[in-house]
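Action item from last week, closing it out:
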Amino acid sequence: MTEHSELRRLAEAAESTKAHFHSGIDANQWGQAGLDALMAINQFGLAANPACILALLDEIEQLKRERKWRSVDSAPHEEAVLLGWWQEDGHGGRNWETEVRAYSFGWRRGSISNMSRHGQATHWMPLPKAPSDD
């Protein structure tokens, strides 16, 4: 599931009913507002079914995998990625540095190579996708 706007709308409608149910008004006196509140909760309950929740959890897990630092041993060749490494700050501490560029680039033909690698990077992660034109 990539389109969450309808589920969000239903969840917000159901969430807005909290005040109605915690108002101290007897359930027999709720009238149309009470029925509307119950309908909003029911609609959200139907939309937030197990398949929907599992799809959302799958999306979260995929995003976590994509945004995890990895060893440069697995960095792609000639592809811009986010590189990271610890840099000594000269005062006994160190800072996490990052740079967007390819970890390795160049070519190799037999024993001849112009391959080059980033000299300091120890970790990498993929760049996010470019924004859509919408």
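Closing note: The CA atoms of residues 66 and 126 lie 7 Å apart.
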